[in-house]
Amino acid sequence: MQPVFDHHQLQTRRHFFGRSAVGIGTAALATLLNRESVADQLVSHFAPTAKRVIYLFQNGAPTQVDLFDHKPQLERFRGTDLPKEVQGGQRLTTMTQGRSQKILPSAWKFQRYGDCGTHISTLLPHTGSIADDICLVRSAHTEAINHAPAITLWLTGAEQPGRPSFGAWLSYGLGHESQELPTFCVMTSRDKEASCGQIFYEWYWGNGFLPSRHQGVKFRGSGDPVLYLSNPAGVDRTLRRGLLDDLAQLNRLRARDVGDPEIRARISQYEMAYRMQASVPELTDLSSEPKHILEMYGPDVGRRGSFAHNCLLARRLAERGVRFVQLMHAGWDQHGNLPTQLAVQCRDTDQPSAALVKDLKQRGLLDETLVIWGGEFGRTVFCQGDMNNRQKHGRDHHPRNFCLWMAGGGIKGGTTYGKSDDFSYNVAADGFHVHDLQATVLHCLGVDHQRLTYKFQGRQFRLTDVHGRVVKEILS
Known about the structure:
The protein is an alpha/beta fold. The protein folds into two domains: 1-41 and 233-286, no CATH class; 48-222 and 304-474, Alkaline Phosphatase, subunit A (3-Layer(aba) Sandwich), CATH 3.40.720. The protein is built from 13 helices and 19 strands. Strands 1, 4, 5, 6, 7, 8, 13, 14 and 17 form a nine-stranded mixed beta sheet that branches. The protein has a two-stranded antiparallel ribbon with strand order 2-3. A hairpin with a 7-residue loop joins strand 10 and strand 11. Helix 8 (237-258) packs antiparallel against helix 9 (261-284) and helix 11 packs parallel to helix 12. The termini are far apart.
């Protein structure tokens, strides 16, 4: 038995059309109201150079020593202790505090790529092929020394959970460009060997104290791409529309009585969910992609939930007007498996990352899409474990100096910014702090980071807290 379906079957023709007219009108009014609420909050402090962001976040912290920060002179220091004046009393993790700090040069070669001649590891040949499109930052730094607080700082502006995430701030400030998809979408992946135990906490894409409609919507690697996308048995799209109309009426009555803005957010989310039932299956169906595009993203592109698959979906989301796409890939936490796992991790991520930039560029989307690639901190120049064991050693967490890259959306390609000291340990020039990245990205989107605020518990909060500067040197 299907009582709800049977009830609708027994309705009279007059009842059906009367109900449908109200339903259609209610849906149209809800859409108009939603658009007005977005228009009221649009922030535009100056002309933007980017419309959207794709953040390729590399959980676990890629090693700048082996990938981006070319230090050939380190070979003559191999096996010697890191000078105390370089270490400078830095707080270390409990894994290396009080232990020997023997310098371990990179085991992989670097070469110059592109007309710009940027040095990049041969582990990343595809990234090397887009060297003229990226700005490589070699002086990133942060305060956090453990993964979760460090990732939280990059993505929310604070080490403690509870603040709105980057994408939520953009949803709040810029509104949505697409009526069929969320403003902020998230996908996660991990290395096939599951070599590191990084956890994807939901506050990495949470709305914090912002209205809940601004939280990120997670696309899954198995089952329905989005939870509850499919209707249950016995409920078709027409019936779903009617149920939502009735629910919206009840919610509006409740909102009128209590004035809770979350009720309005709930109405908006229900409407978006209904539209996503039509838009998401088309979005996630890659059968229309030409063979040469699929090949460009690499052999893993057909495996749902892989980084390559997610990179292609990120391009499709960008095409459809999604403001912020956050890809998170775990597997870079190489404390004891650097000799074996780093190359595997690079193979999984190098080609798709570069393909995304190339794909956006050939479609005319790169100029208005800002792509960011980087982790929460870097890795130490000294070895963790036995450096003479060719299979088992690694590098510890290192927040004082590391690398990331940016492309498109007003960023000056074919350039490098900042530099580290001779040991890739401290920033030697032009430091690039977490809040500097946040301020610069907002600037590219036409937003003054000091003016994008939200009042909560009596205080005006912002993504960059009380810090951050726009790094204009990297802007085109």
